[in-house]
Structures are given as C-alpha cells and as structure tokens.
Design brief:
Elements: E1 4-12, E2 18-21, E3 29-32, H1 35-55, E4 75-81, H2 83-91, H3 103-112, H4 117-129
Antiparallel strand pairs: 1-2, 1-4, 2-3
Length: 137
C-alpha cells in the first residue's frame, strides 16, 4: 500500500482557526476552526487533490521534504495519506444516476414489492460489461 507524505503549512487566522496550504500542490488549501479540525481537513483536502490528479493522469510531486516558499507565521507539519485506500473508497462509493423506464414497468416492479431497482441495474450492468461479481476497475 502506497504511503505518501507532504508538507502542510498551517497559518493562524486573525479571527481564530488555521488556514492550511501545501507548497507542493498550488491550489490545495483548507481551513479549520482549531488545530485538530485544520489537520483533519488538510488530510482530506490532500487526499482528494491527489485522487483528482491521479484520475486525470497527472504526475505527483515527489513525496517528502519540499523546498519552496518559506512560511511566514505558519508551522509546517507532514500529512500522511494512503492514496490507494482513498481511490478504492472514491471509486466504490454509491452515486445517483437518473434513468428512464416506462411507467408501466416501474409500476409493476413497485407492485411486486421485492424489486430493488438499484441492485437490479448494477447486476444487469455487470452482466452486460462481462464483469463477475467481484470485478472492479
């Protein structure tokens, strides 16, 4: 399992809380009401940023110490993420999709009472795509 660590810079905010940014990832920022919240949100922001970059085929900067912009009044801390776990969670989350079927067919399924349209559609798509019950992309 891959483990990546990147430097996060936490800067105290004037109205309390902490802003967070990652020198290795311009545009990856976060905020927390307190230090604990800031660290939790920073980890989530980094996980989603890395997931998006990998999904788009972008190359990640090297993990570890980053030399770059000197933080002003902030403190640096390394955030550890496990991108494969995040990708597995994101790829297997349930999503809503809108489908259109004839009204009479939906009515018949509802009258039967034991039809789960989501499970039925998933099963049909797996069969159509030639996937077994445990295959995932």
């Amino acid at each position: 399992m891959r483990k990546l660590m990147y430097l996060a810079v936490l800067e105290p905010s004037e109205n309390g809380g902490y802003g967070v940014y990652f020198p290795s990832f311009p545009g990856c920022i976060s905020y927390g009401e307190d230090l604990e919240d800031a660290l939790k949100n920073a980890k989530e922001a980094l996980e989603l940023h890395v997931f998006g970059m990998e999904k788009d085929g972008e190359e990640l900067p090297p993990s570890g110490i980053t030399v770059g912009e000197k933080d002003r009044n902030g403190m640096g801390i390394f955030i550890t993420i496990y991108p494969d776990m995040v990708a597995d969670e994101m790829n297997n989350r349930r999503v809503k999709t809108n489908v259109t079927i004839p009204a009479w067919l939906k009515d018949m399924a509802e009258k039967r009472g034991d039809v789960n349209l989501s499970k039925l559609l998933e099963r049909a798509l797996r069969e159509y795509l030639g996937l077994d019950s445990i295959s995932r992309p």
